[in-house]
Amino acid sequence: MSNKKERKYSQPSGVIPRLLKTLFEFYPVLMPLVIICILFNAVVSSLPSLFMQNVLSVVEESWQSGDWASASGRILSLVGLLCIFYGLSLIAGILYTQLMAVITQGSLAKMREKMFSGMQDLPIKYFDTHNHGDIMSYYTNDIDTLRQMISQSFPQLLSSFVIVLTVFGIMVYYSLWLTLVIVLGVCFMVVVTRKIGGGSAKYFIRQQEAIGRTEGFVEEMMNGQKVVKVFCHEREAEKDFDAINDALFADSEQAHRYANTLMPVLNNIGNVLYVVVALIGGIFLISGIPNVSISGISFGISIFVPFLNMTKQFSGNVSQVSNQLNAVVMGIAGAQRIFTLIDEKPETDEGYVTLVNAKETEDGQLVECSERTEIWAWKHPHHDGTLTYTRLQGDVRFYDVDFGYEKGKTVLHNVTLYAKPGQKLAFVGSTGAGKTTITNLINRFYDIADGKIRYDGININKIKKADLRRSLGIVLQDTNLFTGTVMDNIRYGRLDATDEECIAAAKLAGAHDFITRLPLGYDTPLSGNGASLSQGQRQLLSIARAAVADPPVMILDEATSSIDTRTEAIVQRGMDALMTGRTVFVIAHRLSTVKNSNAIMVLDHGRIIERGTHDELLALKGTYYQLYTGALELD
C-alpha cells in the first residue's frame, strides 16, 4: 500500500467567486456577451404570461363592449411583438450556446495548462509525498466535474434566477394575495432543498476525494503489477481495492440517493402549489374578494389564468435551481481540488547567479556571448552593479552539512567533502546510509539544514536552480523513458542536439549497437517507459541522454546496478569515456566500479566513517575492507 500523504482540503467557501473571476480573466469579452444573451433569453421566457394577461384583457373588454373588430388587430399586434421577441431570443440562444462551448473547453484547457505549469515548479518533495494517481485525478475526474458546472449549471442557474425574479415582479404587479401563496410554497421548497441538498453536498465532496483515492490505488497497482504477481498478492490486492471501492460506493450511493430524491419531491410540491393557487384563485373569483396589486387591476380571468401559468414557471425554475445543486456541489469539489493544486507553493529559488556561454579574450578575461561555445561561466551580479564571470569547472565542496527530510529528523550529520575538477568521488554504504541524499543536495532537490555547499567557490543557494541543474548530468538507478522515438529520448538531455551528436552520445554510452538492431533504429517508437526494451537497454539510453547533455559534473546513482555483468563491461567503457575530464559522483553497490575513484567515501547512518582511495581503504582494514573482501555485505 502507498505511504503517500492524503491531501487535506480547505473549506469550499470562496470557490465559486474565484472560479467566476478566473473565467472572466480567461474571456473578458465573451463572458459578458454570454451573460447578456442568457439574461435576454431569461427575460423573454418570462414574457408569455404578461402577453397572455394583455390578450385576455382585450378579450374581456371586447366581450363587454361587443367590439370584436378592433380586438383582433390588437391581439395580432401583441402576438407579432411576442414573435419578434422569440426570434431575437432564438438568435441569442444560438449565440450563447456556441460561445459557451468555446468558453467551457477553452477554460478547461487553460486550467489544465495552469495546473501543469504550476506542477512543473513544485519541489521534488511534493511528488515524494503525494499519491500520483490522485494527482492524475485532477486532470481527469475533477476537470470533468468542472466542465459540467461551467457548461450547464452556471447558465441554467443564471437563467432560472432571472426568470424567478422577473416572474416574481410580474406577480407582485398583478396580485399580492396570490403572490403570497406562491411565496409560502416556495419557502417550503427551499426548506426541503436545504435539508436534502445539504446531505447531498456533503457526500458529493466525499465522493470526489474517494475517486482520487481509488485512482491512486489503481495507478499504484498497475505500476507494481510484477511485484504483486511475484509475491502472489493478487487476492490481498483485490481485498484492499474492494475496501477502497466500497467506500467510494457508499459515498456515491448516499450522494445520489439524496440527489434522486430531491427532484421528485420538488416537482410534486410544485404540482400541489399549482392546485392550491387554482383553488384560492377560484375562491377569489366566486367570492368577489377585491384584488390587492400595484397595477390596480381588479381580479378576474385576465389575472387568474396567467397566474396559473406563472405558478408553474416559478416553481419549475426553483426546482431547476435545486436540480443543478448536485452538479454545482460536484463542480465545487472538483474546483476546490484544482485550486488546491494550483495554490501549492512552488519551489523557492533565491538564486541570482546564472550559467552563460562565454569566450576568452586575448588578455584572458571571460566575456559573455550569445552563441554556443566550449566554455561555460557563472555570471555573478554584485550589489554595485558590476558583473564577474567564473569559469564552470565542476569544483564541488561540502562544509559541515546537516540535512533531514523532516524537521527534527537528521539524515546527514556533519558531512564534509570535496571534489576537485575532473575527480571521481564514490559513495558506498548500506541502503539508507545517505548516499543518494548527498547527490540530491548537490542538485538542490532538497536544501540543507545547516552548513554550506560551494560549486566553483559559489554558494549553491546563490545559483539559480535551473542553471545549477543544467550543469549537472544525472543517471539514476530507475530509468525514465518517455513516449517518442529512441532519438527523442536521447535528445531529451539537450533539445538543440543534432542527430549526429545524439548518435555520438549513444556510441559513447555503448548503446549504438543495440539501437541499430531495433526495427527502425533510432526512429523506433517507445512507449510505457520503454517497456519493449530490457532494463539494461533502458539504462544505456539513460546514460546516452546524460552524455548528450555534456555537463562538467556527472552523478551516477547506481547506474549499472540493473545491468548484467557482460553489459556492464560495455557500459563501463562508455562511462569511463564519459567521465573523462569531468567531476563525477558515483553511487555503486558493485565495488568493482569504484576502484579507480580518486576518493571513496564510506557512509553509515548519514556519517562519513571512512574516506580515501581504494588502496588506502583496504590498508585500513575497516568497513570498506570488509565490504570488498565479502566479510560484510551491502544490504
**Residue-averaged pLDDT, rounded?**
82
**Tell me, what's the shape?**
elongated
Can you tell me the number of structural domains? 3
CATH topology of the largest domain: ABC transporter transmembrane region fold
CATH architecture of the largest domain: Up-down Bundle
Count of extended strands: 16
CA radius of gyration is 36 Å
Number of helices: 18
Describe the structure.
A six-stranded mixed sheet has the order 10-13-14-7-15-16, with helices on both faces. It has a four-stranded antiparallel sheet with strand order 2-1-3-4. It has 635 residues and is an alpha/beta fold. The model is unreliable at 1-11 (pLDDT under 50). The longest helix has 54 residues, at 234-287. It is elongated, with a radius of gyration of 36 Å. α3 (68-120) packs antiparallel against α5 (132-174) and α6 (176-223) packs parallel to α9 (301-342). It has helices at residues 15-26, 30-65, 68-120, 124-129, 132-174, 176-223, 225-230, 234-287, 301-342, 435-442, 465-470, 486-491, 499-509, 512-516, 535-549, 565-579, 614-620, 623-629; strands at 354-360, 366-368, 375-381, 387-391, 396-403, 412-419, 424-429, 450-455, 458-459, 472-475, 484-485, 525-526, 553-557, 583-587, 599-604, 607-612. It has 18 helices and 16 strands. The chain has three domains: 105-342, ABC transporter type 1, transmembrane domain (ABC transporter transmembrane region fold), CATH 1.20.1560.10; 354-391, no CATH class; 396-629, Rossmann fold.
